[in-house]
Structure formats: C-alpha cells, structure tokens
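FORM 12-B: Structure-to-Sequence Request
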C-alpha cells in the first residue's frame, strides 16, 4: 500500500476547456487545490473554484506571446522531485517549491491547425512546448505524479476519482504515464510529418486514434488500422470494416489507379479475378465478371466511374463484400443497399501513402511503393515479330494486372479483358499452367491472347506452353542471362515478345 498516493495539488493547463467541469468540481470536493495558466485559470475561477495563477508560483508573467509560461523550476521542480529522495526533498524546501501531484494538459491543436490550411507561422505557434514538457515530466515521475495528457483520459480519471477519491495506486499512475507517452510521441510524429517533405509517408505507430476494426485476419485476432480511412472514403452503408477488407480495399485502389479508361475490377484475397476496360460501365462489369464468376462471389468490386442503376441491378445478382466507386446514382444506391451488411464506399480525392511498411521478425520493413507504370514507349521489342496495335494495348493492360498480383504471377489478357491469372505459385510454370487451365474452365479462347509475366523467364518453358495455348504476344521485364532461350523460341514459332526492364514482384 506504500505506493498509494493522495492528490493534493493539480496543475491544469488545457487548450480546449470543455469536458473538465465535473472533474475539477470533484477534485475540489476531494480537497485538491489548483494552479493554472491564464485561460485555464479563468475557466476554473468561472466555475466558482479557487485557483492560483502559475505566474504567482513562478514569479514571472507569461512571456513571448505565451511561448514561456510554465517552463520554470518552480513548476518542474514541483512535478519532478522524488518524494523518497532526501536530496530532492531538501532542495524543494530550500527553494520553496510546492509539490504538484496531478498534471492535466490538453496540448495546442497542432494537427488540426495543419489540416485547416493555416499559414506556416500559425502552424509553428501551435507547436506546444510547455504542455509537452509538463506531460513528459509528470509521466517520468509516475511514481509520485498522475498525468492526464489529453481529453481521452478525462473519462478514466473521472472513473478513478469516483472509485477511489483522490487516492491513486502505482499501477494507476503508470497506466496514465503510458497513455501520456502515447500522446507525446504521437504529437511529435505529427510535427515530424509536417516538416518531412514526404508528408504522411513514414511509419507512425503512435497516431492518437487508430480505427477499430471488426477483427484481424481471423475473427479471434483483434486489429486496428493506424491511418485516416475517412480521409480516403465515405462509407455509405454496411458493417464495420475488417482487416482483410482493408487489405482488399488497398489492393483494389492500387489496381484501379493503373487505368485511365473506364474499368471495372473484381478482387479476391488481394488479387484481381476479373477486370475489363469498356466503353460503358455495364459492359465493363459484365466482362470483368466473366473473368471468373466463381471467385467473384464474396469479392471486392471497384470501378473508376459512377455506378448507375442498370449496373447496380446486374451487380446485385451476386453476393459481394465491398464496392468502391467515385460516385453512385441515388437509385443505384437504393439497389445496392438492399443487403444490410454490404460495405459501400465512395472513393474521395486523397493520395495513398507512397511508402509501404510490413512488420516482421522484431522490426518493420519499409520500401517505396511500386509506382512504376509502363506505357507504349517503354516497350522494347525482343523478337523479329512485333506486336500488333491491339496486342500492344493488351500487353500494357496485362502488365498492369500482373504488377498488382501476388508473385509468381502470370496474366493472360484478350481485348482488354482478364482471361485468367496464375498467382502466388512457387514456380512461374505453375502460374502459367494455372492461368491456362482457369481460362479454359471459363470458356476463354486464348488464340490471339497475350501473356504478362511479373519477372523474367529463366527458361523457354513458359513461352513454349503459352504458344501451345494460342498466345501470340508476351510482355516481361527481361534481364535473365537466358533471355535468348525464350527469344529464340518466339522467333522460331512466330510470337512477339517485348521487355519493359521493370520487374514487378509482389510478395
Ligand atoms: N509555454 C508554456 O510554458 C506553456 N505551458 C503550457 N502551455 C499550453 O498552454 C495551453 C493552455 O493555455 P491557457 O491556460 O492560457 O489557455 C495548454 O494547451 C498547454 O499545453 C504552454 N504553451 C506552449 O508551449
């Protein structure tokens, strides 16, 4: 019980004053006295409670336009002195420093100021110095001091006061200290993001309000998303987003962003199982669905055009989890909302993070996102036969899909429609065989189709299998010491092959 402490004096310095009334009144009833900075002091006194001015404690006024108000040994000595350290105690007596056992801070709203589009000078003034120092000091001395570092901790503090009066245990204080360091590290990360010219692009484990997810990869795993989902999407309908939903949504967005033409795509487990570019949304949907109507069940749908009622009625014939579009006609929404759980998302104008992170072992991997897109000018012919104009369009189309498919990946395309992909196989030959078999099972005629490979061909086996399936043109990165084997085969059998020089592994 030795670690139980009673709060006697609180330093309160909050930017937003709301939400504190009941806490302050309760603390007052428990005999706690207050010391406060200008605006907060006025707020406390307006509640009819006594409050000392921090200026009277320090003997200094607030100076430099409020940049220095609590930064003083009388304040920090009162927080940081170790109650069981003789030297510390002698010094606080010598310098007449009153002890402070509770610190309540609500920091200057830095992120909100940045988001409001304010001028740089206004933003810089919202970098809290005194408040963050108070938080760090009080959290460091959690053995003796309670730190309430943001409004999010008002409720736990109120609960504590209701349960125990002004008494706190070491466990209570340590919990508040942990929360305080989450606030201070999140705050500094936000400031770093502002100064970093790749804004928002780095890993911020400490963002203040992660999005709660329905569950993780499996229902027995809890999960959170550290990001700003609502900046990217408006959810119009459906159940709470899950971890797998987010992975699929990310894959869907990355895929659709490759296409300028009107396109519809269906994804399952992060890979496209159907995609087509067409002159109107109904045709695009129908030809995407034809790619693999079996896998489409329970899939993620994405398009880069408005969803109208006609296509909504077509889509409604199958079960799917999520639909993403830039806009929906009102009558289309009525149709899509018929199923209660369906997640309907409007994609907003908002950039995705240009960096990728992945946790493994005891750390986090970071890499630039694969943002390389190949156009016609990037295609280098490798064979005597050159691809036709139609084949070039299909090769570029296939290359965009294979880039967004799990390696080893092979994609077969005809007339800007995905015929089939082979994905996530340990050998490229297996990927190709899987794709050919799948295309056949959905009645695709591969004569005149094209093949994309996410990495080079070490042997001629893939082009040989492709040729026998009717494929007439191939796109690949090139760069194998054995490129010649595949090129020779294509020359002997009249296939066109182009290389891009860019590998698109996706593990
Ligand atoms: N400069 C200081 O010494 C200082 N001490 C506390 N603050 C902040 O001042 C705000 C409260 O000011 P007021 O009580 O005057 O409204 C709080 O957000 C607190 O985090 C300070 N301001 C910025 O650093």
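FORM 12-B RESPONSE
SEQUENCE OUT:
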């Amino acid at each position: 019980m030795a670690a139980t402490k009673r709060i006697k004096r609180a330093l309160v310095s909050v930017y937003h004053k709301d939400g504190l009334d009941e806490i302050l009144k309760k603390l007052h009833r428990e005999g706690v006295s207050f010391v406060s900075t200008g605006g907060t002091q006025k707020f406390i006194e307006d509640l009819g409670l006594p409050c000392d001015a921090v200026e009277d404690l320090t003997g200094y006024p607030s100076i430099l336009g409020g940049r220095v108000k609590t930064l003083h040994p009388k304040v920090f000595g009162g927080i940081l002195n170790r109650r069981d350290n003789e030297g510390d105690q002698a010094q606080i007596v010598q310098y007449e420093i009153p002890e402070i056992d509770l610190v309540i801070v609500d920091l200057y709203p830095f992120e909100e100021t940045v988001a409001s589009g304010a001028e740089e000078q206004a933003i810089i003034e919202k970098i809290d110095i005194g408040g963050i120092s108070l938080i760090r000091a009080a959290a460091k001395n959690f053995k003796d001091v309670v730190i309430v570092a943001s409004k999010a901790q008002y409720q736990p503090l109120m609960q504590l006061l209701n349960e125990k009066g002004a008494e706190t245990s070491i466990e209570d204080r340590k919990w508040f200290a942990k929360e305080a360091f989450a606030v201070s590290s999140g705050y500094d990360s936000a400031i770093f993001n502002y100064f970093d010219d790749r804004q928002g692009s780095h890993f911020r484990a400490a963002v203040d309000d992660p999005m709660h997810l329905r569950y993780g990869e499996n229902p027995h795993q809890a999960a959170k998303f550290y990001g700003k989902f609502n900046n990217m999407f408006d959810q119009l309908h459906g159940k709470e987003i899950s971890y797998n939903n987010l992975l699929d949504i990310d894959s869907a967005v990355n895929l659709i962003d490759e296409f300028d033409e009107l396109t519809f795509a269906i994804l399952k487990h992060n890979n496209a199982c159907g995609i087509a570019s067409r002159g109107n949304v109904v045709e695009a949907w129908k030809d995407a669905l034809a790619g693999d109507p079996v896998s489409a069940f329970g899939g993620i749908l994405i398009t880069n055009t408005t969803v109208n009622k006609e296509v909504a009625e077509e889509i409604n014939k199958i079960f799917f989890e999520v639909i993403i579009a830039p806009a929906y006609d009102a009558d289309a929404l009525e149709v899509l909302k018929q199923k209660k759980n369906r997640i309907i998302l409007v994609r907003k104008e908002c950039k995705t993070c240009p960096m990728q992170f992945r946790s493994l072992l005891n750390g986090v991997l970071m890499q630039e996102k694969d943002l390389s897109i190949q156009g016609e000018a990037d295609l280098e012919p490798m064979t005597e036969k050159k691809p036709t104009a139609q084949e070039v369009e299909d090769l570029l189309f296939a290359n965009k899909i294979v880039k967004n498919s799990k390696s080893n990946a092979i994609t077969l395309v005809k007339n800007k429609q995905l015929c089939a992909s082979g994905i996530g196989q340990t050998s490229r030959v297996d990927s190709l065989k899987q794709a050919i078999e799948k295309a056949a099972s959905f009645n695709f005629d591969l004569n005149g189709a094209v093949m994309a490979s996410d990495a080079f061909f070490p042997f001629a086996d893939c082009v040989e299998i492709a040729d026998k399936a009717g494929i007439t043109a191939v796109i690949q990165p090139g760069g194998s010491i054995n490129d010649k084997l595949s090129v020779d085969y294509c020359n002997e059998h009249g296939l066109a092959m182009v290389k891009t020089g860019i590998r698109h592994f996706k593990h």
